[in-house]
Amino acid sequence: xxxxxxxxxxxxxxxxxxxxxxxxxxxxxxxxxxxxxxxxxxxxxxxxxxxxxxxxxxxxxxxxxxxxxxxxxxxxxxxxxxxxxxxxxxxxxxxxxxxxxxxxxxxxxxxxxxxxxxxxxxxxxxxxxxxxxxxxxxxxxxxxxxxxxxxxxxxxxxxxxxxxxxxxxxxxxxxxxxxxxxxxxxxxxxxxxxxxxxxxxxxxxxxxxxxxxxxxxxxxxxxxxxxxxxxxxxxxx
Length: 237
Prior knowledge:
237 residues, mainly alpha, Arc Repressor Mutant, subunit A, Four Helix Bundle (Hemerythrin (Met), subunit A), 2 strands, disordered N terminus
């Protein structure tokens, strides 16, 4: 029984349970419109867990890029606000999805190259975890969430602020409801399996610290997305 288990095993089990529970809350969007998570105290009470387990889970989710914190404000799902959000809102109506894909093809291979050159072992482990979550997602919304988190993580690890801002602008523009619906139509069980394999190829190249291979794998992945999105928009899928 649980009370007979060593304390460190009990704590590990509790931490895993809490992490899974909070991740589900975030991935399913069971949050207020501003994306604010309950306080650590509230989560601990709701999940019948210790504050230390809740804090550890939040630290993990922050490292994965699924939440962010602001002192005195709280913890929120997603990424912290970026100055590019306002600009993205201004130009979104003038940019079509295929143009956004063209922009991604220009910048994301270069980000993958830099990521491979700068990633630590911990960074690679986080990328593999995000790829695993993308693969395990049981609906298109969750798959989109984890897929986006993976690409954003690669952009952040690349460590170039100007390129990250450009990536963020593209990412903000492509997050509109209409565009997400188009991307959902382009996702099938077959394409998802293919995308998963491409993600692994990208991460393997990053793990090998092979920037050229990482850039090539990212370009191949985005070209596949581009082609499938175009076919979907033309009503051929």
